[in-house]
Amino acid sequence: MKIAIIGAGAMGSLFGGKLVSAGHEVWLYDIWQDHVDKINRDGLVIASAVGETTVRPQATTDSGKIGSAELVIVFVKATATRAAAKTALTLMGADSIVLTVQNGYGNAEKLAEVVGRERVLAGVTSHGATMLGPGHIKHAGSGETHIGQLNAGISDRTRRIAALMTDAGIVTTADGDVASLIWGKLLINVGINALTAITGLKNGQLNDYEETRELMRLVVDEAEHVVRAAGIKLPYSDSFAKIADIAQATAENKSSMLQDISNNRLTEIDVINGAVVNEGKRLGIATPFNQVLTLLVHTLEKCGTRKIDP
Q: Are residues 161 and 277 in the same domain?
């Protein structure tokens, strides 16, 4: 299958690398010229606990070179989803599908506005990856991946894409309740991303300290209250235990939000903890813990990385 990935950061490169290793024609589209040039010249190097492998997807900063793709996977930051939707539309043929496994709430809806609701699959993944440099990523943790269509039920095409990804080493389940998927993953990000961005800790280190575990519990319990009030069933029974387990499973991973803050980039806080705050306002539920984390991350965005003057 011909697959185009919009956004070749750590996660986009990881999925692209696994898919090209499975024999698919994979194109990585990104605006980072050095990254694209390095991949085209020397291949994409994926480091993991068992060593390094080099794979050779095609990479470009010009989406016009890709042509039509049967599957388009969107991995950009949530702030760039609308622009990615317009790019995706130019890469789609009559039967093409767009899949988002981005962090945060609202990405699938933004894509659907441009390409059509019936052509969008949404998903979540617990894989973790870190960008080490141009053409070089670290696969920092493996986990579950689930995908589903925006309408209830499981279609044959959802099953086909899930099987394709599983064959590539990304074990994927077709799921019939995409809202549960997205909010379930959102709570994971709620519990991990902002806290790691603020403290500078890796995912697993959140479990090492009584204080960070309690903070994680407070923001997750608050978010769970909002989600259940909205009538959404979560895909696990004990939210805190699930999130603590995922933090441990991806122990060496630096969350995407920590990477953003460390590199003076805008984060996705508004579609993660900020989404809980907004949904809480809609339902008349106070969310002080998530609001504080949202404000603290925005403060770090504005003042840059942790630089303390003497």
A: no
